[in-house]
Amino acid sequence: MAELTNKITERFAIIIDTTEYAGNFEREATAYATGVIGECEVGERFVQDFKDDCPNEDFLDIISQQSDDHGCYRPCELTQTEDGKPNAIAIHFNEQPTIEQVQLIVSRVIEYFRLYNKEVKVISSKLITITTKIEIDCTYRQGNVEEG
């Protein structure tokens, strides 16, 4: 008797393409834009700025922390632009942010660059849906076990 279990999950990400290598700033820019930091605590100095500037916004419950290559959980990651350059930031969400939240985050990333990293510019931004489908085939077979 076979039992097939399916699970489909959706999460979301804001992808922000920039003119420069995003590994130099993705965590600090995300902290400035959202007030959320990862286990590594990079960008902690910007959390209070976010709370002061945006007292009615709280992204902590909707931002998804993703594990990096070293097992450290972070709200963002370096990703590639459409032309394959590692110049984009992906900020992950458990639920779909509103258009107003997306606009706020993108505008704060632009502001972060204006204040702290003037040579970087935002080229484009988009909200994407990431769908994961998991199929598990649970088959139970009864038979003899040979002793060796």
Detail the topology: elements first, then pairings.
Layout: E1 2-18, H1 26-34, H2 47-53, E2 66-67, E3 73-74, E4 76-79, E5 88-93, H3 99-116, E6 122-139
Antiparallel strand pairs: 1-5, 1-6, 2-3, 4-5
Helix pairs in contact: 1-3
What does this structure look like?
This protein is of the alpha+beta class and 148 residues long. The chain has one domain. The protein is 23% helix and 33% strand. It is built from 3 helices and 6 strands; from the N terminus they run E-H-H-E-E-E-E-H-E. It has helices at residues 26-34, 47-53, 99-116; strands at 2-18, 66-67, 73-74, 76-79, 88-93, 122-139. It has a 4-stranded antiparallel β-sheet with strand order 4-5-1-6, with helices on one face. A hairpin with an 8-residue loop joins strand 4 (76-79) and strand 5 (88-93). The radius of gyration is 20 Å and the shape is elongated.
Instruction: Report the span from N to C terminus.
Output: 28 Å
Based on CA inertia axes, which overall geometry fits? Answer: elongated
Number of helices: 3
Quick one: how many beta strands?
Answer: 6
Q: Encode the helix/strand succession as letters.
A: EHHEEEEHE
What is the percent of helical residues? 10-25%
Please summarize the sheet with the most strands.
Answer: 4 strands, antiparallel
What Rg is obtained from the alpha carbons, in whole angstroms? 20 Å
Number of domains: 1
For the residues shown, what is the average pLDDT? 90
- Approximate strand percentage: 25-35%
Uncertain parts:
none
Give the strand line-up of the largest sheet: 4-5-1-6
